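Now for a sample.
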Amino acid sequence: MSGSTTIFNGNSRYSTDFQAVIDRAVGIASLPMTLLQNAKTRLGNQSAALGALDTKVAALQATIASLSSGLGLNSYTASVSDSSVVKATTSDGVREGTYSIEVTDFGSYANAASKSSGTGLQKVTSPSTGNISADTTFKLYLNTADPAAALTITPSSNNLNALADAINRAAPDVHAAVVNVGSSENLDYRLSIQYNKFGANTIALNDSSGNSLLDQPLLGAGSPVKYKANGGDEVTSAARTATLAPGLTVELLKASATGVATTVTVARSATGVGSALSSFVTAYNAVVSEVDKNRGQGTGALQGDSVLFTVSDALHQIVTYDSDSGSGSGGLSSLTALGLSFDSSGALSFDSGVFNTATSANLSGLSSFLGSATGGGFLKSATDFMNSLEDSTSGVLKTGIGSLQRQLTDQDTRIAAEQDHIDQLKTDMQARMAAADALIASMEQQVNYFTSLFESMRTSAYNNK
């Protein structure tokens, strides 16, 4: 409804009365609009309250999901006896164990650079305009002397920058760069090529006449990486990484002291599960607090809504889950055994000491109790209850939010239609009152005219006596 009523401006003495009639008619017609707006406000409050509850429940769902990874890859940690020699990384498939590695040769890259002088060679003082050769086609030999196996290099322009770019496009196993080996006053740009794999690799670049344009070795011909894993034979590799076991990879950082192996220890703990349980407790209490805002003597927008019972029941089922006998899980059959309990205020709490004692030597029991989101155990039960609330198509909270949004949209449509009705009524009333006022004003003018005429005649007759 409009915030103010248009003032009726009439010419008759009844114009104020006409305005009162318009105001009263619009006021009566606006009563349904008031009801619609009140209903929209109520729906908006319910939607906001349900959205706030949904946010808290979604956070709880996320902590339950994190429990599933607590005994997965995140439960494994790899430590090394000398972190300056190797860096260990775990991945899927890793297992507990102790391993050793001795880096006997750290390896080196093969490098080559354009010569300082020679047949067909030119000095380059500007790599964007000059080149080491006047040719426009070159042959790159990598670990071969066979012309048929050489790569044809054709730069887009006849300059050193373009030559380096063309080599990088044609040969992914090497990297070409432009370097200045002269002073700032006496520039001397050269082509530098490095093999990207460790080993005794060879690099050669010839012009179209077969003239050699590179010196090798510049910093050495390169050598392979060598190491001994778990006391075995020496292994030769083209990379500074080694797979010691399924899911366990080490990055080699430097050569070992002669005869000294680095120990890599992979251990497993329930620290991740403990951290996830602590987050679960925090999220659980937040949901309970959000539910309580709409209960009792409060003024929550969801008071009396069945969704509160549904959420509360799901929470109860989750925290009271019991795997019956606990067989196969080392006596861990409930969250209570893992240190979860309700304190004197009714809030859920987590005792990490109880958890550590119960799981320190019983990771298999913990794994059995937790199960998985699809394969049974606590996680399957909790995940199913969370899905009953949060599933995008069938979850109670998601469908409830969707329903309220549709009702709000429908309410907006009804309000807009009612507003159009009120505006039309007001327009029609103003037109009718204006017509009536104009008629009355015209009649008032005629009354005034005849009154003045009769008064004038009466005065003239009196004066003529």
